[in-house]
Amino acid sequence: MLPYTEKGVSSNLSLGSYLRRLLRNHLLRMLNPLRFLTDAFDHSALTAEERETYRNTHLFREYLRKIIAERRADMTRGDFVSKGDFLTQLLQNEVLAKDDDEYIVDECFTFMIGSS
After folding, report:
1. DSSP-assigned states of every residue in 24-45
2. Mean pLDDT confidence for 72-100
3. Are 22 and 66 in contact (CB under 8 A)?
4. In this structure, how many other beta carbons lie within 10 angstroms of the beta carbon of residue 56?
5. In angstroms, rounded to a whole number, what is the distance separating the alpha carbons of residues 64 and 71?
6. CA torsion, points 93, 99, 103, 104, in degrees to nearest 10?
7. Is residue 11 left, alpha or beta, with left meaning phi > 0 and alpha meaning psi from -120 to 50?
8. Which end of the chain is more exposed for a tag (fewer CB within 10 A), N or C?
9. How high is the pLDDT of residue 67?
10. Chain-centroid distance, C-alpha 34
11. Given this model, what pLDDT does residue 45 score?
């Protein structure tokens, strides 16, 4: 369960519900008329709901960073057996292993949004 805040009310949601609400709120934010006129507001939270969406997105990205760190720690153990899952494949990729974790977080976020 992940903590999610919407309209000032906090609740704990399953991963699928969390992602559906997060995606819905990001899509709704694009409907703001100011965003149609200019891209100057693309990286700004214009309303309280948008600020909550930014915070929820940040919390989810922190959750992904935690999962990545845990998997990396598991992979260093001698008894780790790869099951060929998406995250393990990303972490075993030579190019990505040297790169910043933010790219891996982005890939995991995209994969999870697409699957929800």
Report:
1. HHHHHHTT-HHHHH-STTTTS-
2. 86
3. no
4. 21
5. 11
6. 40
7. beta
8. N
9. 95
10. 25
11. 87
The number of residues making up the chain comes to 116
Paired tokens of 92:
């075993």
Encoding tokens for residue 11?
């609740």
Gap between the Cα atoms of 116 and 108, Å rounded: 12
Give pTM, 2 decimals.
Answer: 0.86
Q: Which two tokens stand for residue 88?
A: 């393990």
Q: pLDDT, tens digit, for every residue of 48-65?
A: 999 999 999 999 999 999
**Residue whose pair of structure tokens reads 């600020």 in the numeric block:** 51
Asked if 18 contacts 59 with a C-beta cutoff of 8 angstroms, the reply is: no
Give the torsion sign (CA, 92, 97, 67, 90): negative
